């Protein structure tokens, strides 16, 4: 049996002109996670990441914290959905930059509604795959791990959408549950699956043991 570690990227730049860039805290979160893995003697036989900048930066930080280097497999099917394209299907006007708790809540209410409609096939966000194609990209990565890494530890760095989709796919949850899982995933959180050549089995979800100590309390973020 093998173990798959799905890690969400570190804090990105929510509200900035370029979201796809780790913040300074996001980099520290990533390095800290690598230190945690190294301290526990965890070794990875396979490294896989989405192709977004924040995925690659997070993986680099983890490897820095582990004091190791390694080549990874880039997997486009592990890229996040386009939240702006989704929201545009239910709110065509330009959104204000979220600068208050109410604006943040408004943003995520729109995102939840837009995701539900996309999953149901009721909308076609510009430049995005269908939801069935999105799920296929994630499940294809799971299939690759089972086929090529039995008995090994594999690290996958991706985003909240693919992680919640992977959990939903394995547990066969309804789309509504997948949405709720997605919106709860913390930056650099770990979701673990045990796997055999035939299936994946969920072990843990959304854990941040590397940030449990009091000095890291302010490092826990969701964006």
From TrEMBL:
Organism expressing this protein natively: Ramlibacter pallidus
InterPro entries from the UniProt entry: His_Pase_superF_clade-1, His_PPase_superfam, Mito_Ser/Thr_phosphatase
Lineage: Bacteria, Pseudomonadati, Pseudomonadota, Betaproteobacteria, Burkholderiales
Protein's name in the database: Histidine phosphatase family protein
Keyword annotations of the record: Hydrolase
One Pfam family in the UniProt entry: His_Phos_1
Signal peptide interval: none
Top-rank taxon, per record: Bacteria
